[in-house]
Structures are given as C-alpha cells and as structure tokens.
Write a structure and sequence with these properties.
Strands 2-3-4-1-5-8-7-6 form an eight-stranded mixed beta sheet, sandwiched between helices. The chain has about 160 residues and is α+β, with helices and mostly antiparallel strands. It has helices at about 15-25, 90-100, 140-145; strands spanning about 5-15, 35-45, 45-55, 60-65, 85-90, 105-110, 120-125, 130-135. It starts with 5 loop residues before the first strand and ends in a 9-residue tail after the last helix. The protein is about 20% helix and about 40% strand. It has a single domain, classed as 2,3-Dihydroxybiphenyl 1,2-Dioxygenase, domain 1 (Roll), CATH 3.10.180.10. This is VOC domain-containing protein. It holds the Pfam family Glyoxalase_4.
Amino acid sequence: MKPEDLYHTGIVVDDFDETLDWFIKVAGYRWTDVVEVDQVAQTPDGEITIPMRMAYSGRDPRVELLQTVPGTIWVPADSGVHHLGYWSDDVESDLATLEATGMRYEVKAFNPDGSGELLWAYCKGPAGPRIELVSRAMEPFIHYWFATADTASQSG
C-alpha cells in the first residue's frame, strides 16, 4: 500500500439522497450513477449479503457515499470518514501485511467467477482509519463508473 494508491474517502450516511443533494447544492459536486447491489461478502463470522447503495463524486479527490446498512460495518463513523480506499495489486498480500501490523479484516469479497481472487477487503486496527483495499482488476469498471458523473442527471 502506497500513498499514491489512495483514490477515495468513503463516507457512510443515513440519508443518502439528502447527502447527495447537499454536496450538489453546497459544493457543486457531480455524482456517478447510483449503484444498488446485493453484495455477497465474507466476515470472520461467516458469509453475509449486504444491500449496498453507493455513488462516487465525479472528480478528484473522490468521495464515495454509501447508504447506512444496520448491523454491518457500514454505519456512520464518529469522525464522518468511514474509510480510506486504496488500489491494490494483490489484495490478499496487502491484507496480510495490514494484519501483520495489528489490523484485522472485517469483511472481504471474492470474484464471483469462482477463481478465489479477492476483489476488495475492509480492515480496521486499534487506531487510525478503516482501510479498504480494492483490486486493480476492478479499476476499469470503477473508471467507467466515474465517467457516469459526466452524463448522470444531477438534481439541485
């Protein structure tokens, strides 16, 4: 994990639509298409399905907004910042490195193609922010998603 691999700051919010509108009206943000997906993921306690709703800001520095999902790690953080998201060339290896420094994984998702490849993982330590590692294999899709901010209809 390197500083230059940081590509977004994630914020979990209770009122997703109101927060998107606030960023548009107050700060002039544009947003990608909103994605809603039931994400299957692994936790230390077993497999879960997470109903996710999220969007990215259209320009750097990227902000990722996520809808609160009660009973998961996706709840608003006291600081407002839920996580820092980093590109990873090898999520499994980077996760092992973070775990060796005292962090623990909270949730991770594998490629649904059955390859066993980790696509993303969240981990948290006793201090500092939660870290999300995102496989570079997802980078083309996420950049395509970023481009939807240029064409998405914006309210406000």
